[in-house]
UniProtKB/TrEMBL annotation, chains A, B:
Keywords, sorted A to Z: Endoplasmic reticulum, Secreted, Signal
Subcellular localization, as worded in the UniProt entry: Endoplasmic reticulum; Secreted
Family in the record: Belongs to the AGR family.
Major localisation: endoplasmic reticulum
InterPro entries given in the database record: AGR/TXD, Thioredoxin-like_sf
Species of origin: Larimichthys crocea
One Pfam family of this chain: Thioredoxin_7
Plastid is among the record's keywords: no
Cellular component annotations (GO), alphabetically ordered: endoplasmic reticulum; extracellular region
Signal peptide (from-to): 1-20
Keyword Protease included in the entry's annotation: no
Name this polypeptide is given: Anterior gradient protein 2-like protein
């Protein structure tokens, strides 16, 4: 560990002459965006701390989406949200947004467990609004896109 | 807050027919990458929790860079690191990397204050290696690129 770290630092201070473009052995990668496909035009917070900061300073609620790339429910919700102009506009203008693939240390963000997809809202006062939930009684903060034909208001 | 949240959720479950591309009033934005310019070919952790998880599971040390977009020292260090093929290769193959613009809740990541640019290393055992420091006695974890002509080994 020290050896590897020092090798980086040594290069860092000496700045070798090996300028150019680094290409990984496995081939060129497409840089990962903060949106991760949930809306490329939104300004996404990177971390929960950053989201809380922006929520407080801009006085807008924070929306936290927990998701996983290999979860089909996450993927279909993502597509529905990213493709909907009105959702994107509302989120962009009235919310601070954050999408996470890893849990935070704040237990308030998992009132009934750590499942995906899961959406929690946080007030600008930094209060997690566990009272805002979806339509499933067993997983209160799960959401899924429904076509209007299969959806009936209760 | 509730009103705005509900309006999103309502749209979420009903999925309106307003499919298309959302363009912000202020014009189209370029999606922010996780690299933030520190190396587009590296696989960046999004959060500290994610970085710790990858460090532990891949048994590689975690390098955490704190920086700010409007800090000229951060910018010059970023350019030097991103442009150096050897640094990029070492980081890609031997490290888990994370760059942050906001502080975390782990005080161990700011042993002598919260300044930028600042680089801390964390062992796969999740120990912050405060013993790995740079060349400045007043800011132990600050680094800056030096040309080889102005650098002399001690």
């Amino acid at each position: 560990m020290i050896k590897a770290a020092l090798s980086v630092l040594l290069v860092l201070v000496a700045i070798s002459s090996a300028f150019g473009k680094y290409i990984p052995k496995t081939g060129k990668r497409i840089p990962q965006t903060l949106s991760r496909g949930w809306g490329d035009q939104l300004i996404w917070a990177q971390t929960y701390e950053e989201g809380l900061y922006w929520s407080r300073s801009k006085n807008k609620p924070l929306m936290v989406i927990f998701h996983l790339p290999d979860c089909p429910h996450s993927q279909s919700l993502k597509k529905a949200m990213a493709d909907d102009v009105e959702i994107q506009r509302t989120l962009d203008e009235e919310f601070i947004v954050l999408n996470l693939m890893y849990e935070t240390t704040d237990k308030h963000l998992s009132p009934d467990g750590q499942y995906v997809p899961r959406i929690l809202f946080v007030d600008p006062s930094m209060t997690v609004r566990a009272d805002i939930s979806g339509r499933y009684s067993n997983r209160l903060y799960a959401y899924e896109p429904l076509t209007s034909s299969s959806w009936s208001p209760t």
